[in-house]
């Protein structure tokens, strides 16, 4: 029997340089962590491997200082080199089983899914969590919208934690957690603000309240 590992995935921050407003990567992500982000994912499709490793080392040190998880998008090799906490795999990335063989049993592996069947398959492949989306239309990434119904079906189909992604906003958090999500992944809704720390605090306050209410109903 596979034991599902549990992590604090409630507020999952994803790097996105288009919202930098001249701020460095650390200036973007440290306020997220101070405001309550529990995970940082480094996603930089345009960076060279050398640049990505440099960014990853900076963020690894930052997340460790804040006792947060550090996940790297796509790149198993960079995850190994910088000793990140884990990797997030898309549909066209390395198979989870191969990633697990390379990373070992302790690293976290996440997988993007779009429906209940993919969620069930991901669980069988030994991943630690799935991200489901795009739940709503995303301004950050061009991805098909699957909607709240699909999110609920995914949450019911797997014992894994499910992180909702895509078009997440303060005003739709309640509908997301009502469907069984374990967290939300955000970029624009967190970074595209002058005061990122205050925005993170606002999001985390609402998320903690909704998560507590959901947990209470499940008892």
TrEMBL record:
- In the UniProt record, does the keyword Oxidoreductase occur? no
- Please list the GO terms describing molecular function: magnesium ion binding; thiamine-phosphate diphosphorylase activity
Instruction: Name the domain of life this protein comes from.
Output: Bacteria
Q: For this entry, list what GO says about its biological process.
A: thiamine biosynthetic process; thiamine diphosphate biosynthetic process
Annotated keywords: Magnesium, Metal-binding, Thiamine biosynthesis, Transferase
Question: Which Gene Ontology cellular-component terms appear in the entry?
Answer: cytoplasm
Q: Give EC number(s), comma-separated.
A: 2.5.1.3
User: What functional role does this protein have?
Assistant: Condenses 4-methyl-5-(beta-hydroxyethyl)thiazole monophosphate (THZ-P) and 2-methyl-4-amino-5-hydroxymethyl pyrimidine pyrophosphate (HMP-PP) to form thiamine monophosphate (TMP).
Name of this protein:
Thiamine-phosphate synthase
Give the species this sequence originates from.
candidate division TA06 bacterium
Supply the gene name.
thiE
């Amino acid at each position: 029997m596979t034991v599902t590992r549990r992590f604090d995935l409630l507020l999952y921050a994803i790097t996105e340089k288009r919202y930098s407003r001249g701020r460095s990567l650390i200036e973007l992500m440290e306020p997220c962590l101070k405001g309550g982000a529990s995970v940082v994912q480094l996603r930089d499709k345009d960076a060279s491997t050398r640049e990505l490793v440099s960014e990853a080392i900076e963020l690894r040190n930052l997340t460790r200082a804040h006792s947060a998880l550090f996940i790297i998008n796509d790149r198993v090799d960079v995850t190994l080199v910088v000793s990140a906490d884990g990797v997030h795999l898309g549909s066209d990335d390395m198979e989870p089983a191969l990633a697990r063989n390379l990373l070992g049993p302790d690293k976290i592996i996440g997988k993007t899914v779009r429906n209940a069947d993919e969620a069930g398959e991901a669980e069988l492949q030994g991943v630690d969590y799935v991200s489901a989306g795009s739940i709503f239309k995303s301004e950050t990434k061009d991805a098909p919208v699957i909607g709240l119904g699909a999110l609920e079906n995914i949450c019911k189909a797997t014992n894994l934690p499910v992180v909702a992604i895509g078009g997440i906003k303060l005003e739709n958090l309640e509908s997301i957690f009502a469907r069984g999500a374990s967290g939300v992944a955000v970029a624009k809704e967190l970074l595209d603000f002058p005061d990122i720390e205050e925005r993170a605090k606002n999001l985390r306050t609402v998320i903690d309240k909704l998560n507590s209410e959901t947990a209470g109903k499940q008892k």
